[in-house]
Amino acid sequence: MIGQPLYILDTVDSTNNYAMEQVNTGQVTPGTAWFAMEQTAGKGQRGKQWLSPPGENIILTIALQPGMLPLSRQFMLSAAVALGVYDWFSKYAGDETAIKWSNDIYWRDRKAGGILIENVLRGNTWQYAITGMGININQTVFPGHLPNPVSLKQITGKTWDAIELTRDLCSCLDTRLKLLHPAHYDSLLEDYKSKLFRFGQPGTYRMNEEYFEGIIRDVLPDGKLCLEKDGEVLQLGFGEVEFVIVK
């Protein structure tokens, strides 16, 4: 079960770093989760730092054991985690919730959270996926350099208990991760695409310093984004294209 046990930490540099240290001791059971009231050096995608005021948001890392998933199917894990977070967040924020490729959580065109998965390999064996997530819950003031943040409190007008929400999040993740079986890969991917921000809709993107209008046409089983640009469909990996959000 995801989140059993769930450890509450006062302060860490990064929950992903802390979880990695615990996994390396060999004493961690799959599904173990760590929630931090504060982290001093939180990690986001592509080396970015993720900052959060103490106690206001969900700062969570879960040690997942991919089991039967081969390394070639890494994206299936990412999609399942994103769908689990989507299921949970949409319960509270409503049906304007979406997944922005590859695994950010959006409400309308604003970012509510992100996911960072770091893999532990032993030779060719996928031992663990250290799965971190940061989700804006009660924060209402954000650094000016963030282009489009939003929190659950801003959406609903309510103040939430972040730890209780975390327990519910773990339950939603558990439901989705139990579907990680070859028989469910196709339906999982289709469900992921049905929740995708801007899927089939025109939007502005940037690639190689060029801004252009594009349309997301598909996401492949390996996670590549199929983006139509000037009548040509490009297959792009993570980090190769940037979504442009107009304030």
TrEMBL record:
Taxonomy, superkingdom: Bacteria
Family matches, as CDD domains: BPL (cd16442)
Signal peptide (from-to): none
Domain BPL/LPL catalytic stretches: 1-181
Entry's Gene Ontology cellular component terms: cytoplasm
Alphabetized UniProt keyword annotations: Ligase
Any GO molecular function: biotin--[biotin carboxyl-carrier protein] ligase activity
InterPro entries attached to this UniProt entry: aa-tRNA-synth_II/BPL/LPL, Biotin_CoA_COase_ligase, BPL_LPL_catalytic
Listed NCBIfam families: birA_ligase
Name of the protein: BirA family biotin operon repressor/biotin-[acetyl-CoA-carboxylase] ligase
